[in-house]
């Protein structure tokens, strides 16, 4: 099953004093809105970057070939992540629309992984608001995430390569001598070679994954054929890529926590009650968010490499304790 029967029966028991059904609390509509908001925000960021590209060129000395390559690389990365944000948003919306409350709870780690991979903030926060019950996933990451990433990269990395090379070839900031683009003795040439190599390699991996995984529209069909060394190799590569992304997410979450703590210390030095209260609130929110992100991310990473390909997420004890205390307080009032 997709959930812990004991927890489910307990919360749905009519004799339960709290009368609380955990799966009625799934913020399905908010989850959809978060994807729309995140996609719109990423598109706005892309538009802002493009509108200021000339200013960035001028600020970095636009005649320098290295700066041209760096600015084009930043544009390519932004466009790729905009595409990935759009695609993963569609996947999450589809899950939200087609899955039952129980399935969403059980597979919330996939929602979190897809959102965290594009730097999402609100969706992982919503995932922490899912009912705090022990669950076991119904979607195996090697099957689902490999197919998802294959389609994402098949479209995304050609866009990434074009977004990098086009500004160097055409437009007001194009370089005069096109031979410099792949000149291995220059920084621009090294960047260009790396961009092209990564784009071709990841596109080929995505195409191979899509071709091999396409016949297996049903997860059980894939499981029955997953003893193939080629299937294991390809899925392991994708799991490694996603794991590296999640490791970076953990690192950045620690940086965010350090920054919030630093802001709190600076607010104390500058004085002012309002400033200190705001900094304290920011620190508390950051600690809560980082704690939940670390918890869900580590569980996701464990699930990616589990033998049976499933993820079991237990109760988050701090949240559970807080809810129990709140319930006791309400009963005593």
UniProtKB/TrEMBL annotation:
Q: Which organism is it from?
A: Spiroplasma platyhelix PALS-1
Query: Which segments cross the bilayer?
Result: 30-50, 70-96, 108-128, 148-170, 190-213, 233-255, 276-296
Question: What's the protein called, per UniProt?
Answer: Transmembrane protein
Keywords, comma-separated and alphabetical: Membrane, Transmembrane, Transmembrane helix
Top-rank lineage group of the source organism:
Bacteria
